[in-house]
Design goal:
By secondary structure, the protein is α+β, with helices and mostly antiparallel strands. It is about 30% helix and about 30% strand. Strand 7 and strand 8 form a beta hairpin.
């Protein structure tokens, strides 16, 4: 097939996920122009930044029309929940990202639970509450260990795995009485605590068809050995080896989910991300997200041999049926560098040294929160940089990622040392 550089893309977002997406889009021979809104200094290596609020339907539609975008790729969840995809589609534009109705799978955990129950999708048992007193009174009917979850978008701060009823009651109060996660915690779920290894399963969808991307594992806790608080993710690797049986069960979860969405009149085009726990009784869905996971995306996209722009365009047009996803052999490991105090109280990272030396070692560097001035990079507060390395297997990718991560220096740098550790070849979830 002859490819033409005929596609102008507008990419929404500004973080590490969007940096990885910008790179993947820029690799496509189909790409004519790439714009990012709002973008970042790092993303502007690949894209021209446009000012604006990515969660404002009016601003995004105006920018997309002004720049003659033939495709809009939506990175984060907030624009999806705000109906940006709906407004773009109503204006006749092609979009990679679901409408607000589909995005409810992420923006309301109660909706997601009810949806899963309607469509026979395996998940933890749960109960929804709109008042703290009722939730606390119900705790006596639940096992000692229980999970308390905010219904709405809480940026990773709305889930508490509680080892005792007393702690669960405190989590209920934090969410519902103290509004610790804002509006997101007005309603909550009590949920059965499951155990097993976790997998981030991501698929691209065109409303009817889906294609699974390599399975990834996120490292959500701050410290080695899964100690410390939950974070947005301190590292990720792909692929996670799984048995044929587990793969078939995961395929089945996606088939049911996409089938269920269609049956409910929801035309879901974009990424569907299932956070799965591989329990002794098979995979169960912990949560759905409607966008790429970050840092998972930083380990998954570098493994794609297929043209990501072609994939996104096929999803947006409803033409994924004719497309195969090709994946490279080998593995990718992403190590996240965060700033001191992350996640509770992050301080700005300040001056960053060693970026060039790290890049020269042949890894990919994705910026979550940085800015450049006079060619000197400085880091913001929170997750700062992701270092992704490819290798013939996980242990080689891991070695290369850490060698490069060690070359990058800033005051108070925080990282985990055990990303993708203990994954011998052939180990299966
Ligand atoms: P979520 O945002 O729902 O994926 O939850 C964040 C993290 O909390 C997950 O990655 C799990 O480690 C943990 N978690 C969520 N739900 C459960 C559950 N039902 N049982 C045990 N752990 C859970
Ligand atoms: N890394 C988890 C997420 O993006 O939700």
């Amino acid at each position: 097939m002859i490819s033409f550089s005929d596609t102008t893309v507008l990419l929404l977002g500004a973080g590490g996920r969007e940096h990885a997406l910008a790179r993947a889009l820029a690799l496509s021979p189909r790409l004519k122009n790439l714009y990012s809104l709002p973008g970042s200094d790092a993303i502007s290596d690949w894209a021209q930044s446009l000012p604006g609020n990515p969660a404002s339907p009016e601003q995004v539609v105006a920018a997309a029309k002004d720049r003659h975008a033939s495709l809009v790729v939506i990175g984060p969840e907030a624009p999806l929940a705000a109906g940006v995809a709906d407004a773009l589609r109503a204006a006749g534009l092609l979009v990679f990202g679901p409408n607000k109705d589909g995005a409810r799978l992420e923006s309301s955990k109660i909706f997601a639970k009810e949806f899963m129950a309607r469509h026979g999708i395996p998940a933890a048992r749960s109960q929804a509450f709109e008042a703290a007193a009722a939730a606390k009174a119900a705790l006596k009917d639940w096992p000692e260990t229980v999970v308390v979850k905010a219904d709405g978008l809480a940026g990773g701060k709305g889930v508490f795995v509680c080892p005792s009823r007393a702690e669960a009651a405190r989590a209920v109060d934090f969410l519902m009485e103290q509004e610790g996660a804002g509006q997101a915690g007005k309603k909550i779920l009590l949920e059965e605590a499951l155990s097993g290894p976790e997998i981030s399963a991501l698929a691209v969808c065109d409303g009817k068809n889906f294609r699974l991307l390599p399975f990834a594992r996120d490292h959500k806790r701050l410290q080695d050995g899964d100690a410390g608080p939950n974070t947005g993710g301190m590292g990720a690797f792909a692929p996670v080896p799984v048995s044929e049986e587990a793969r078939a069960a995961i395929e089945n979860i996606f088939a049911r989910t996409l089938g269920g969405l269609r049956a409910e009149g929801i035309d879901y085009r974009g990424v569907l991300y299932a956070g799965l726990m591989m329990t002794a009784r098979g995979p169960k869905v912990l949560e759905f997200n409607c966008r790429f996971g970050d840092p998972e995306v930083q380990a998954v996209l570098p493994l794609l041999k297929s043209d990501f722009l072609e994939l996104a365009l096929a999803c947006a047009k409803g033409e994924l049926g004719r497309i195969r996803v090709e994946v490279a052999l080998g593995a990718c490991v992403c190590v996240v560098l965060a700033s001191r105090g992350y996640p509770q109280n992050p301080a700005p990272a300040g001056k960053i040294a060693g970026l060039e030396a790290a890049r020269d070692s042949g890894v990919l560097i994705f910026h979550s929160s940085t800015a450049v001035s006079d060619r000197a990079w400085s880091g913001g507060a929170g997750r700062v940089i992701g270092v992704s390395a490819l290798g013939k297997d996980l242990s080689e990718a891991r070695r290369r990622a850490y060698a490069a991560a060690d070359k990058i220096q800033f005051a108070g740098k925080v990282l985990r040392r055990d990303v993708a550790a203990g994954m011998p070849a052939g180990a299966e979830a």
